[in-house]
Amino acid sequence: MGLTRLLSRPLTREQEPEDATQESEDQTPTPETGEPPRLATVIAFANQKGGVAKTTSTLNLAAALSEEDYRVLCVDMDPQGNLTMSQGLNPDSIDRSMFDVLVHRLPIDSVIEHKEVDLAVSSIDLAGAELALSSMIGRERALEKALAAVKENYDYILIDTPPSLGLLTINALVASDHVIVPVQCEYLSLRGLVQLENTLSMIRENLNPDVAIMGILPTMFDRRTLHAREAVEILEENFGDLVFKTRIKKTIRYAEAPVKGTSVLKYDPTGKAADAYRDLAKEVLNGAKARQHA
Ligand SMILES: Nc1ncnc2c1ncn2[C@@H]1O[C@H](COP(=O)(O)OP(=O)(O)OP(=O)(O)O)[C@@H](O)[C@H]1O
Ligand SMILES: [Mg+2]
Questions:
Q1: Distance CA 215, CA 127 (A)
Q2: In the chain, domain spans
Q3: Does residue 215 line the site of ligand 1, with CB under 6 A?
Q4: How does pLDDT run across 129-184, given as a tens digit for each residue?
Q5: Beta bridge partner(s), residue 218
Q6: How far is the CA of 258 from the centre of ligand 2 (A)?
Q7: Under CATH, which number does the domain 37-292 receive?
Q8: Residue to probe by mutation, ligand 1, list 55, 57, 260, most atoms within 8 Å of CB
Q9: Residue 30: partners with Cβ closer than 8 Å, 6 or more residues away
């Protein structure tokens, strides 16, 4: 079908540093060793395309890591507030949110709700943050600064971003060690990856040399359609081992869980939908271990 022409060039994982010693931020936290606290590993979920399962993946990976006793903070950087809603909170009736953290330098602690996971909440105000930040010095580093205060308290910080490559997403990418890119297994979803990679290159050059794609996550996968299978093949041809082995299949469970204000792991703990994100958590944990021992 000529779909391979969608992606102009193969993109591969960033070169691992030759020196085996990794930054402490990059190491896998081990909750039971009694070692001194390590700083959280920060992962952003980004794709400027809307509706590819960024929010769903942020919450459910967080729930899966929590099940393994890791301390996880989710940060809702999307003015739509979908992540906040999916924990049963109403973004319209929230007094203080990430807007105040980013723009008024309120400590992030004061907007963290302790729900199924810890969550720094969003409200509709956040829509004004891009404009408010745009004239501020250090506008790209507001989130990085805010997170520094809580990085010792968590093993993982997972950031949900809006479907754009504006200042909120840039803040997330600057604050992150890694990026997970959820991609819907469809023709049109693949092209946007090149644009995201260009933005990441720009951020690496100017703001955060260490941020790298941890993996591309095929979502809403329907094995029955040739189209979905082809889309995954193209992903693997172009991105190789950067594509997670886990396939998040299409199922209504993921839409049902947020209505109850929970992750799918809590909503349907023994279902396949929950297991898919447990598999992803294993890949994330194993990948980090592999890097540690590289
Ligand atoms: N694997 C899946 N199968 C079926 N539906 C899914 C799946 N994952 C997510 N959904 C549903 O698809 C919709 C979009 O998902 P989600 O909100 O996570 O995407 P998003 O990338 O965060 O969107 P936005 O760009 O608007 O923030 C939601 O209704 C969600 O419940
Ligand atoms: Mg979302």
A1: 28
A2: 37-292
A3: no
A4: 999 999 999 999 999 999 999 999 999 999 999 999 999 999 999 999 999 999 99
A5: 183
A6: 12
A7: 3.40.50.300
A8: 55
A9: none
